[in-house]
Amino acid sequence: MSNDEPTSVYLTATCRTPGCPVENQPFTAQFYANAEPPTYRCICLPCGQHLTDLAPVAAPIDPAGTV
Ligand SMILES: [Zn+2]
After folding, report:
1. Which residue of 2, 46, 48, 51 has the lowest C-beta tally within 10 Å?
2. Are 33 and 7 a contacting pair, CB within 8 Å?
3. Is 35 domain-assigned?
4. What's the 56 CA to ligand 1 centre distance in angstroms?
């Protein structure tokens, strides 16, 4: 039996593609670990390039958190 629950983490991703509309604009998203490396993959929607700048988020996002 396998009990492989996908591990999700929040990462801050930043597109470094020159000329991309969101170049150097960090955003936070939820990522699921892949079975094969690279562990976390994300494609920048505006430019279609793989995001290579992924950094762990210090604190998890809490939508119901206090202001
Ligand atoms: Zn981009």
Report:
1. 2
2. yes
3. yes
4. 19
CA angle 9, 12, 14 (to 5 degrees): 140
Task: Determine the distance separating the centroid of ligand 1 and the alpha carbon of 55, expressed in angstroms.
Answer: 16
In angstroms and rounded to an integer, the radius of gyration of the C-alpha atoms of the chain is 14
How many domains in the chain?
1
Q: Which domain holds residue 28?
A: 7-57
- Residues of the chain under the 70 pLDDT cut: 1-6, 59-63, 65-67
Is residue 45 domain-resident?
A: yes
- 46: its two tokens: 């505006």
Distance 34 CA to ligand 1 centre (A): 21
pLDDT value for 3 = 65
Q: What is the pLDDT of residue 66?
A: 61
